[in-house]
Amino acid sequence: MDEETSTSAEMSTPAQTSRGGDGRLRPVVSETAARRRRRALRLLVLCVVVLVPWTVYLAFSLPDQFEARHWSAAWVGFDVLLLLSLAAAGLAVWQRRQALIPLSIVAGTLLVCDAWFDITLDWGTRDVWSSVAAAVLVELPLALLLFLRARRLYRITVRLAWERMGLPGEPPPLHRLPLFSGLDSLPPDGVSATSADQASEQASDQATEKGRSPR
To answer: Residue spans with biased composition (Low complexity) (predicted)?
Structure first.
């Protein structure tokens, strides 16, 4: 069985699922995906373990006031990143691209960070009220709009993937949604379901014949 036939057959296979002891539907994960998941989990746990004592240390060691260097470069650089993220999200809206989902999350997160730093750094000064007004009237509402938009598009994407993968019932809420390791089983662009089914049958026949032939 050649590589192209194997890939087509693999993509045409519906996502395999199983039910755990709690009755929830879970995808059957390949060994490669399981290894990647374990590596990602170890890395994230390590980051959390290191960040907790580091945050506690900073809370007790940082001074209340500090004379910063390159102050203008830090803020201008941050605003450039915010500008680029908003522009990229706008471009994704205009072109109707799926990249709008992560770009909206990035832009919304930067807006929340902008509001946080503006208020905390101006706290105790007369400029704090202008920072609070900008956060309440502009930055936080825009961030919320971007987050809600990304969530809505994500739900639509999940529903379409759920139906295309042949999973039963309705997709669960986002916080209970399993990783779609089965997305690798979707047909590639330009390959119809009929062609994929034919490739799957052909690959299965070839594998059967190969197993019967003498070595």
So the answer is: 192-206
* pLDDT confidence tier of residue 206, bands split at 50, 70 and 90: very low
Instruction: Report the pLDDT averaged over residues 113-140.
Output: 92
pTM, two decimals, is 0.68
Checking if the pLDDT of 152 tops 90, the result is yes
- Quote the Cα angle for 84-86-89, to 5°: 105
Residue 206 contacts residue 1 (beta carbons within 8 Å): yes
What letters, b where the CB count within 10 A reaches 16 and e where it falls short, cover 190-214? eeeeeebeebbeebeeeeeeeeeee
∠66-71-76 over CA atoms, to 5°?
A: 150
186, 11 contact by CB (below 8 A):
yes
Does residue 135 carry a pLDDT above 90?
A: yes
Which phi and psi angles does 27 have, rounded to 5°? -75, 145
